[in-house]
Write a structure and sequence with these properties.
The protein is about 0% helix and about 45% strand. It is mainly beta. A five-stranded mixed beta sheet has the order 4-10-9-6-7, with no helix packed on it. It is rod-shaped.
Amino acid sequence: MKPSQNPAKPSESPTKPSENPAKPSENPAKPSQNPVQPSENPEKPNENPVKPGGNLTGPGGEQTKPGEKPSTDQPVRNLQITNVAIGKASGTAQVGDTISISVQSAGGTGVVKYRFVVKKSFSTVIGDDTISSTAKWRPKKAGKYSITVYAKDDGGNVAEKTITKYTVNKKLKVNSFKAAPTSKKARAGQKVKLTAKASGGTKKYMYKFRYKRFGSKKMKGIRNYRSKKTVNWRPKKFGRYTLYVYVRDKTTKRTAKKIIRNYTVR
């Protein structure tokens, strides 16, 4: 038996692999561009933990021992006088004036009491061991004074403050007031020279002159305030007159006056 002349050939078109095999995805899922990052400020453990047996600190920074509660009281400030005020400025006060002295203090413990002392040639206490923060003083002499205020609290702490070279002037007054010619020698229509002189207060005085004829209720002016202490007056009628001079302290505006009564013009 002969073998077959046309043996079965293998298939000329065998199954070829697919010309368009499935390609991997061109846009595969990318990992997240914003992955969850760990917290930038992770909770830190207490940097200053209370150590066993350590001391606690109160609000004022004071140390307390273990087992004690911190104090809630603020630390006490030292007693101090913050201000002393005088009711009249230096150089404007005059002998006999009532002058107020006031004090302000801070700190200390308990009640604060004050002592007021003025000194010229010797010391004079004008208020002692008083809770009042104001004292009254009436100087009897002109000159320069020192004024000291002392403060003392219940704890025995003491503070003081002094004002130096406080000036008190003499009382403003008219020392003299004269007319020339003198009474009974003057004539109606003729010149009468009036002259005044002042002292005390602060200088650079201003003078004003006035008159009133006997029987008249109206006062008339001769000259208003000026620095010159003399003035010329010409009485128009004979009779008796009352003459006045007023002096004014230029700085404090205080005034003083002096009178010539029964000046007779013939």
